[in-house]
Give the backbone structure.
Amino acid sequence: MACWEQKARLTSIVLLAAFLVTAAILFLIVPNLDAIFAYRYGVGFADGYDLIASDLAHGSGYRWQTNMGETMMREPGYPLFLAGVFKAGGYHIEAARWANWLLTIGIACMIMRLTRMVTDDRSAALIASVLFLFHPGTLIAEARGGVEILFIFVAFVFMLALHGAVEEGNLWRYFAAGLGLGVVVQVRSTPLVFPVLLLLYLGFTANSPRERLRAVLNVAILALGMAMVMAPWVIRNYLLVHEFVPVATLQGVALQEGQLTCQNLSLGGDFYRVGREAGRERGELASSLGLRFEGAEYFQFFYDPRDEWAFNNLLLQRAREEYIRHPGLLAACIGKNLFNFWFLGKTWQVTELNVLIQAPLLALALSGLHLLRKRGLLSKMGIVLTFVLSIVAVHLPIVAEARYSIPVFAFLTIPASVSIVWIRHYYSMHRRGGAIA
């Protein structure tokens, strides 16, 4: 008991120190590096979430600007959260950073809990949390007024709820987990296909037809919970454009930008410039159609939500036709995005830095999965890996860059920590053996 209390105290001390160090980085160091980061990474408000959140906070509705119509281009989860942050702390990037920092404390605790559920190893749990907290991608995501940290937080809440449902087999737990997944999808819709992959996984691992039928019922209840949370957003969008719009209207933008990146990205031009060129092409297309919008350089913000919906569909149609005309292009883009998802940065210098950071961590994660398999524990990672796959798979045919992998890496800290614990034990045993000899 004394040993357990000592380890618990040490864990608390290490975590507290990690939280304080990350806070110092976030609030003392990052503000002085804004000018350096500006071209390589955005560490201010990102992707327009703050614009919608500000209008929400001031009672102007879910729109980019007060003189524009309402928008569907962003899922509502993060703008609603950020609007609450602005209400409490004002429209400042520091308020968003404080909120992100508090969320990372919750994420670190949930990583520890999930790691213990998979490995039953206190050391691995602590290492996984520290890996997440000090990953450069995590620190940059905290500094941005972007969606990543909230997405990771709600994803871990959902994953813990789903693990509880699978262990208990209780339908009400699956329904509660489905509500959690609905919140996840309302923050970022990339895991929307997860119920399908989960059904395939549960069906594959079931031992009898009865278990498979039970899996179908469980996943149906999960999907029902998700649909109930999504319903207000879907109804609101239908009232806007009289169409079924379950997710944000950015699929066309993502597919168009992904195609141009696949076709035009080379060592002679970086991802930042290709992205801007894709934005200019969209702006020229919208202008040629006579649509009213702002933002000719990158995102197009439309005055009328019906124009926004029509433009998204047009981009989807043109991109699909391009893939049909050149079927090899889709395979090539998927292959390139396997690399881009983990490593691609705004410039090639940043991409090289991402490789130096991400490649060793991916190697640790793969090694950890191998160790879990040897110990007969890989099945405990099965649902987590299925969720990871649901996120990665969505990005492969559209657009991918390294910042999209940060939520995925948060889950991969679990097998990576298993590798680190094994390496530490190996060298500890080796040193003791050398001393005896």
Q: What stands out?
A: The chain is about 75% helix and 0% strand. Residues 326-437 form one domain. The mean pLDDT is 91.
